[in-house]
Amino acid sequence: MNLWVLLDTQIEDVCTYLSDKNHEITSGLSEEELSLFETNAKLSFYTVFNRFLLASGILVLILALALLYFTRQYATQQKQRNRPPTSAVLARIYGAIMKTYTVHCSCNRIELSLCGEPRARVICHCIDCRELLDGPFYPVTVWTDQTASITHGESNLSTYKHPRLKMKKYFCTNCGEVLFNTNSVDWRAVPQWLIAKNHNNQLPQELTAVTHVFYEQRIIDVSDNLPKHLRGFSSPLFEG
Asked: pLDDT tens across 92-151, in order?
């Protein structure tokens, strides 16, 4: 038998059954009761239909939001596969509009890009720097991780974390040269001699130190005309 003919027959049987049932229910009702029955039936139908539409709308909205979310997630993953690290991207942007300094380790396997102006230019005499870096004092320029970024050879970068202090130093695995160290707020302190070495042994004037800090912890005196703070920038100056 043809499928459509069978379906039409089934629908006709259902309609006949419902018509018979309706006749059984309404046969003993007065005109007023019949009118009330029809009104209630219509209200019930509209209520169920409206709830169905509302539920359908909510379901469609949820499906649309889920599709949008997963589409964005997929697009983000696709972009990140071939996108360089955020710090490298920012370094290129800064480099296009601001002064950029490029330094590398002795074996040239790691390249560090410095963009714009450093947060500080100091000669540090603190005990912590001496413990971490094994020197009597430490002339540095201080940058953020957005303005001092590894632009080449990051896989060759190794890290040493101080066992007690919130400080790390980052050095080349191959030649061992320290490119920078970080403090408790993760600022990057780049040695001034490393910058000078990469600029024909001449430190750019705009990167030279402007003050000494933690001079009260010094192990040797330094004779120059720079101010010498006993601790941080806001501490009293050394008088001697």
From this structure: 555 545 689 999 999 999 999 999 889 999 999 999 999 998 889 999 999 998 899 999
Cβ-contact 160, 128 below 8 angstroms: no
Residue owning tokens 């499906």? 63
In a domain, 114, yes or no: yes
- Kindly tell me the sign of the dihedral angle through the C-alpha atoms of 12, 13, 18, 20: positive
If asked whether residues 104 and 176 sit together in one domain, one would say yes
Report residue 73 as tokens: 């997630």
| Gyration radius of the chain over CA positions | 38
H helix runs in the chain, sequence order: 3-26, 31-81, 86-97, 127-133, 192-197
pTM over 0.70: no
Domain encompassing residue 69: 3-81
Instruction: Count Cβ neighbours within 10 Å for each residue of 32-46 and write b for 16 or more, e otherwise.
Output: eeeeeeeeeeeeeee
